[in-house]
Amino acid sequence: MLISKENLKQNVSLAWPLAMNSVLMQSMVLIDLLLVAPLGEISIAALGITSAIVSLLIGLQNSLGNGTQMIIARATGAGETQKISTDLMSGLTVNIGFSVFAFLALWLGASPLLALVSDNPDIIVQALRYLHVAMFTILVSSLTQVIIVYFNASRQTRIPMYGFMIEIPCNFLVSWVLVHGLFGVPEMGLQGAAIGSLVAVFIRLVYLLVMVRNEKNLDVPYGYRHMSRSTVWAHIVEVSPIAANFLVLMGGMTLYQMLFAQLSVYDYAAITLIYPWMRIGTQFVNAWAQASAITVSQHIGRNTVSEIPEFVRQAVNITQILAVVVALMFFLFSFIVPYIYPNIEVETMHALALIAPIYIATPLVRTYNTICGHALRAMGDAYKVLRVHVVTQWVVALPLCVLCIYLGLPVYLVFGVTLLEECLKVINFRAIKAKRLKAYQVLSA
Questions:
Q1: Does the record carry Membrane as a key word (predicted)?
Q2: Which of 65, 207, 219, 383 fits a 20 to 30 Å CA distance from 390?
Q3: Is 368 inside any structural domain?
Q4: Residues 6+ away with beta carbon under 8 Å from 376
């Protein structure tokens, strides 16, 4: 089937700033790591623990924001400016409510949580200092997240991208000064990195507030006045399966890591080394899928559902092209791994060679699942998407992974369970997508 140039242009204009946002967000973690690395293993370990906690909470914020994004996109497609304002305030209430809960949970439970993770008192002290600042970063981030999804849903994805481009150099400069105590400033170590992130996120918030004030289609006072318990509850009902979906996937990924840790040190090292590259490789595909979901939501808002089947088919076609490109990149990557990691053991390099076919083939199926997951959530099938993830990952793949490790099977079979999981999802998503698109065709007939 031919790919519409118009659809390609519209989605590319949405997708590339979204992809840049994801890459820039990932780079913030790298900035802290690069600045903290010279402080020694204690600081690095403390950063590793705290960044995992903060990333989980920020990820939940983002998942709630993705739900708000689809709701606002529908209202934008329908041209309902008053509903946009109400949806925005409802989304802000939900996101801030979650962030306040997370703030209180960290305030009351950070010490016992860290005591469970580490028995090193030096690591716990540094991690607590970091978290005491990061709690406020989470609160500020909830405001920025909702404003960002408003701009994304309104097809103004470049504005959030510019916000990240302002934030990152501010984060680097402030953290650099505070971590190492430059220009007469007291040396604060790991806590300085946390303060730098807080200052940078606050600067991004100021920028976004200035930009959102110029929006003619947004009436915040109206949205606040007309927000009610029913609108907030309806918002929670719609975004909760998306948040649950994130928790299921994040929990599954964490359990996978714990299971892989039962392999030999060389096999586990190989999987650990390849995972970040697999995440980076999916950022552009994920951005394309998000852009497609925004377009689908706007079609629903405009009541032009007859155009959705053709658009989704074309979006999937483009995704399949992206899948081949990503797989080819991983194929080339498999040849340069020895140059990227020149000092690793021969056994680890052998394990990397064994799992190479798995990580090369994975994008060919995972990209399809990504586009289907986002599109189906936009079409109102969030609970069906959640069910697919629960069954394929928690009922089939994870128990099978446990069995493979128990039987002492080779690393490529253990790691290959993740590819099997993606293949099972393809079968389910294809059936759900076909049924939903057929329903839209019947409505438009």
A1: yes
A2: 65
A3: yes
A4: 382, 384, 385, 429, 432, 433, 436
Least confident of 41-50, 171-180, 322-331, 363-372: 41-50
The structure tokens listed for 321 are 């092209």
223 and 262 belong to one structural domain? no
- Indicate the residue among 177, 205, 227 that finishes a domain: 227
Q: Is residue 233 part of a domain?
A: no
Same domain, 220 and 319: no
For residue range 232-256, what is the model confidence (pLDDT) as tens digits?
Answer: 888 888 888 888 887 888 888 878 8
Residue 284 forms part of a structural domain? yes
Q: pLDDT digit string (tens) for 160-216?
A: 888 888 888 888 898 889 888 888 778 888 888 889 889 988 998 999 999 988 887
* Residues 333, 445 within the same domain: yes
Q: Are residues 283 and 339 in the same domain?
A: yes
Q: How many domains does the chain have?
A: 2
Confidence of residue 7 (pLDDT cuts 50, 70, 90): low
Please indicate, yes or no, if residue 114 is contained in any of the structural domains: yes
Question: What pLDDT does 341 receive?
Answer: 75
Range of the domain at 136: 1-227
Whole-prediction pTM = 0.77
Q: Which residues contact 167 (CB under 8 A, 6 or more apart)?
A: 28, 200, 201, 203, 204
Cα–Cα dist 228/223, whole Å: 10
Of 227, 255, 275, the residue at which a domain comes to its end is 227
Examine the domain organization and report whether 22 and 144 are in the same domain.
yes
Q: Terminal CA-to-CA distance of the chain, rounded, Å?
A: 21
Confidence check: pLDDT of 1 > 60: no
